[in-house]
Amino acid sequence: MAELEINSVEQAKEELKKIDPEGKLPKPTPEEIKEAYETFAKAVSDFNNKKYEIGTPERMREIADYLLGFLEKRVFWTKQGWMGVIRLNQDIQETRDKAVGSPFSLSYQALEFIILVRPDLKSRTTA
Q1: Cα torsion at 87, 50, 101, 90 (round to 10°)?
Q2: Tens-digit pLDDT profile for residues 37-82
Q3: pTM here?
Q4: Which contacts (CB < 8 Å, 24+ apart) does range 19-24 have?
Q5: Torsion of CA 34, 40, 42, 47, to 10 degrees
């Protein structure tokens, strides 16, 4: 299938007319729309709640303390990033303060923020 670049609603309508000039493509039923919405909402929830485990449970506090020190000494607070620094600090502290025996874990957003605040780390994390 060819790729389309759409930059406006009008352009989308024009391209749709080329694909379906008589407007006979089937439309989703209300049940299909509801099902798609629920599937998407579940996927968003799963993504937002997924945690990535780092290290072993025995090293959980060591990893958390290292990352907290990293934030304190190596991350510069920027006009656009200050809230992310605060949120990442909270995530790390929450993980560190949970029961002993659990592995250290962070969300994808937290891991991505670490890369964003230290772009020099990106080259070490990609193959």
Answers
A1: 0
A2: 999 999 999 998 898 888 888 888 888 899 888 888 877 777 777 8
A3: 0.58
A4: none
A5: -170
